Structures are given as C-alpha cells and as structure tokens.
Amino acid sequence: MSFVQHKKITVFDIVNYTLLAIISVSCLFPFVYVLSLSLTDRAVYIPYEFHLIPEKLSLAAYSYILSSDSFLNALNSTLFITIVGSILNLVFTFTMAYGLTEKRLPHRKWIYGIVVFSLVFSAGLIPSFFLVKELGLMNSYWALILPSLTNAWSLIVVKSFMDSLPVEVIESAKIDGCTDLGVFGRIILPLSKPALAAFFLFFAVAHWNTYFNALMFLTDSKKWTLQVLVKSLVLDNRASTSGMEASIGDSAPPSETVRSAAIILAILPILFIYPFLQKHFAKGVMVGSVKG
Fold this sequence. Notes:
By secondary structure, this protein is an all-alpha fold. Helices cover about 65% and strands about 0% of the residues.
C-alpha cells in the first residue's frame, strides 16, 4: 500500500505554469534570435529579414570578432577588472564585516552606523567623478575597482551571516591560542563558503557588466570594456573607430552578424560560470536571513 500523496493539479496551477512558460520563452527568444543571427552565413543573409533558424550556418562573424585587436583588448580589460575587482571585493567585504562583528572594535556602533547611512544616502555621480579625477585614476582600470571595493548592502548581509555563526567555535579557537587572523582564516572563511561563492558571483557579474563607469572614466578606446565595445558596435556603429576596420572588405561578414556575435561573446562567460556556482548561490542568497 502506497502512502505517497499526489497533489491535485488545479486550474490555477495550469494557468500559472502556462504564464510562466510564456514569460520564460519570451525572455529566451531575443537570445535565440541574436545567436541565430550571429551564425547566419553571408551568402544567405538578408537585412531586416527574420529567421529564427539560419538557412546556412557560418562562424565567420565569430572569427572576424576574435581576430580583431579591439575585441581582444576589450576582453583583456574586462577579465582584469572582473578577476582583480571581484577578489578585492571579497577581501575588503569579508574582512571589514568580520571586524564589525568584534565587540572589542573601538567605535564599532559608529562605524556600522556610517555603513547603514551610506546605504540610504550616496554622494552621487558628480562627487564620484571628481574623486576619481583628483586621485589621478582617470583612464585607469583602477577607477573601476578602487571606488567600489565594497558596498553597504554586502557588508550588512555578510556581517549578519557572521553573527549567526556558532560563537562557541570561535571562542574555543581563541582559548586554544588562535589569533584574530587565525580565527578569520581557519574558522570564519571555511564556514563562509556559500557566502563567498554567492558574493563572488554578485561582484563578478557587476564588474563584467560595468558600462557607465567605464564609459565615463576610460577615455582610451584601447582600454574599453566589452560592454562599451558592444555598445559602440550596436548603437553607435563605430566599428571603424574601434580598430575593427582591418578586415573590412568584400569578404567581411555583415555588420549585423558581427554585432550579434559580439553580444553573444560578451554574455557567454557568465552563462558558463553560473551553473558551477548555482548550488552555492542558492545557499548564499539566504545568507544572514535567519537569526537564531
């Protein structure tokens, strides 16, 4: 005799699942279309004619993009900003959050109050621009990294998570002679793996997609990030000004397929990384949400 109870499917469930399926397909459709356009061969490409599945496949647009100096420069710039920026974000966020959990820290409540205040009130765009300018960071990758080493929301969430860790484990480690750095490195960080994975993903996506700050602070086109380069290709149609004119000729792919290929190449790395961090991400999004 089976005790398994099957949930009865109601009309609401059918309507709900149908709407969710339609929304999911509508979100996926633009990506599929751009991918299809990027794989369309020059011989069968017709401007402004819609084909979800290309009549003839070709990787010419990807070969054209990957052989251009402008795309490789933008890729290197984005990789440097993403990797270095994400690592520094984790270091500063978790070390400062750990410091705020220590009751021995002088003026701890005042410092935490300043963090909360900055969550509600920000200096704004103009002071940020003048700060970067006065520090001599204009046209430097560090202009996209140093001003955002951490943020109030991340600090508050990570601090809440560390407050929920077992106090007995930390106190026993200190009784055994472990220093504050030892506790942080041997106790706090191993227990914070879900939070580390989740926030690394948050920071990496933010750095990879950085656009406005890169457009404002990076004046040299050779230092452009991928998002600025894609914007230049898609909106400004300035492929010739970004160093991609070398291959222009009768054999060059159509500009629309080149733009689509650039968009796909700009979003693929995050799509590949996310599945590997998904299990940690699911735990990390709940960081600091339960107090006990």
